[in-house]
């Protein structure tokens, strides 16, 4: 029963069992933390007060008289005593390209990362999609695995109270993972591990079990500022401080309306998310590849040409991207993003003709971005 794990020795034994079950279930690492997120609420408040969250109003929601639930796990799930954080790597194997194509890429020149990650980024006629989004949506897989882990724990200790989270509730997952020893928060604000880099998903089990917290690791960013220098839109306004309104992930995924004009040319060919800060990070040079078939690129998204994707009709978008995280932005934003990328692509008859085919699209948002892109090409 729960009580039998209340002492330190039993807690340590149960933790080792949970780590082993986690490995057996396909997790790459498991860590344990308490419920305190010291300083998190002040940091979150300052970030919100600066307006860095943009249209992501959900970041400011969930405030109770006790404070923001995001920073207070026991407000989110009363009775929580320990939090189990699980990590699963997503870095997919990407088909490698011609070294010569990549020669002009500044980050590659600096020798930070392997060529395979840069193939699409360097080819402006091809779409760049964030590495985490090339395969199936991770939420279901991660949630099912966490549930299985909870079931294994129940089999050992009997019924206990728990809730499973996979980016599904106001949970400060990086802070919790940091407290559980799974890594440190890099200057790009993502969790970073010496062996695993930052290409991984996180999920949590909030539990009423008393499990001793693991020891947090120290920050190994040192004097490095590669991610800050690499960000195309200078969204990392200071170490550990991200203005989401400038972040390409926000602009291409979260933002519903128009992409601010001064930022459009900086998006390059990134049509869904951006990995530049992670690509630049030296700790990602040897980040392990995922063991999950579900995260392998689907529908050739790691090689897709912009004009091909722009030609998809709405039913193509819905069918081909069923089960993909990309589908959540909807067809209109998909076309908006590709229109911007085509505006940044080399001038060619094919590009102009693709843009013209959408110039009278029923969506004003799409028309507006297509007009901007066409103006760039016709002004050349
Ligand atoms: S690029 Fe450098 S500063 Fe940025 S997260 Fe990686 S190690 Fe830290």
Provide structural commentary.
- The chain has 380 residues and is an alpha+beta fold.
- The chain folds into two domains: 2-91 and 136-207, no CATH class; 99-131 and 223-280 and 297-379, no CATH class.
- The protein has helices at residues 8-24, 40-49, 73-76, 99-102, 106-109, 119-122, 138-157, 173-179, 226-230, 248-254, 261-264, 276-280, 306-310, 314-320, 330-344, 349-356, 364-379, and strands at 29-33, 63-64, 67-68, 82-89, 128-129, 162-165, 184-185, 191-192, 200-207, 236-238, 241-242, 270-272.
- It has a four-stranded antiparallel beta sheet with strand order 1-4-9-6, sandwiched between helices.
- Helix 15 packs parallel to helix 17.
- The radius of gyration is 22 Å and the shape is elongated.
- The N and C termini lie far apart (72 Å).
Straight-line N-to-C gap: 72 Å
Order of helices and strands: HEHEEHEHHHEHEHEEEHEEHHEHHHHHH
The order of strands across the largest sheet is 1-4-9-6
Overall domain count:
2
The rounded Rg comes to 22 Å
What's the shape? elongated
Number of strands: 12
Give helix % range: 25-40%
Strand content: 5-15%
Please tell me the overall pLDDT. Answer: 87
Class by alpha and beta content: alpha+beta
